[in-house]
Amino acid sequence: MDDHVTLSFPKMLDEIIEGLEKDQKELPSKYFYDQRGSQLFEEITELEEYYPTRTEMRIMQDNMPYIIRTVGSDIILAELGSGSSKKTRLLLDHFPSITSYIPIEISEQYLAKVVQKLNQEYPDLQIEPLCTDYSMPFQLPAIAQPYSKIVFFYPGSTIGNFQPSQAKAFLNNLSTQLDPGDGMLVGVDLKKNISVLETAYNDRQGVTASFNKNILRHINRKLDANFNLNNFRHEAFYNRDEGRIEMHLVSRTDQTVTIEKEVFHFKQGESIHTENSYKYSLADFETLVSEWFSVEKVWTDSDHYFSLQYLQKI
Ligand code: AVJ
């Protein structure tokens, strides 16, 4: 079975062709996440080198009562890019008063599986999954039960995948669904020593390399495309001027790739830019969101590697 209900074929094709026609070729990082890509990301989160997931979970565990008090009761929790919902389980296990949970996820098969499991584990929780590409405007499903407020949960520093201008458009779009007093619990990765950053995206086992290349496999599977994964190598580095980790796939040779009758040439050493992962200072992040949200609380770890922040719609 194919998982392209919301990511309709013409849209995916258009976005991919548009990216590969640029001088610096690029692909939207959301296309990492088919079933296999979501699984590979889960493996990344367990790597020694990849500190963000572990650190964020630790921050949550260490501050749970405080987080719950801040977020409030009788809320609708809408999670952006819910994946395995592992961090949500942490919240659900400590939060007696989540009225409804809306997992929002691009990978349809993965979402269906996770929701099925959650329904068994939390029989009293109302779960309303939404399979969509949340980087585009979307509408939350209507919730019948009474609730006090809507809280978006956006962990993992996935907001760092957006360029600041895109992040602002995204925040603007989210805020149209919120009333003043609603909120967002968001994970934000912080600026730090470059070698810590670069190691996190260049693990020894090569899981991140497989994850990066999976974008090509996904395109081959969904579209009529013939990327040879062996002809590309993984590259990840910190771009200090932009304050972001960049992932690229570098062509090992001069080569030609065909996607639905469109032909693309790659020179040896030429790259496809596949992902940005922005790292923020607390002040930069506050400025980024300030048009729509006030930063109510910031929790961080002792190394100041990562932050969990509660933002309130103004
Ligand atoms: C899921 C987007 C937060 O940017 O660190 C992990 C994805 N890419 N390793 C990140 C990712 C390479 C991850 N996010």
UniProtKB/TrEMBL annotation:
Q: Which UniProt keywords apply?
A: Methyltransferase, Transferase
- PANTHER family reported in the protein's UniProt record: ERGOTHIONEINE BIOSYNTHESIS PROTEIN 1
The protein in question is named Dimethylhistidine N-methyltransferase
Q: Does the keyword Kinase apply?
A: no
Q: Which segments constitute the Histidine-specific methyltransferase SAM-dependent domain?
A: 14-312
* Organism in which the protein naturally occurs: Fodinibius sediminis
Task: Give GO terms for biological process.
Answer: methylation
Provide a Gene Ontology MF annotation, just one: methyltransferase activity
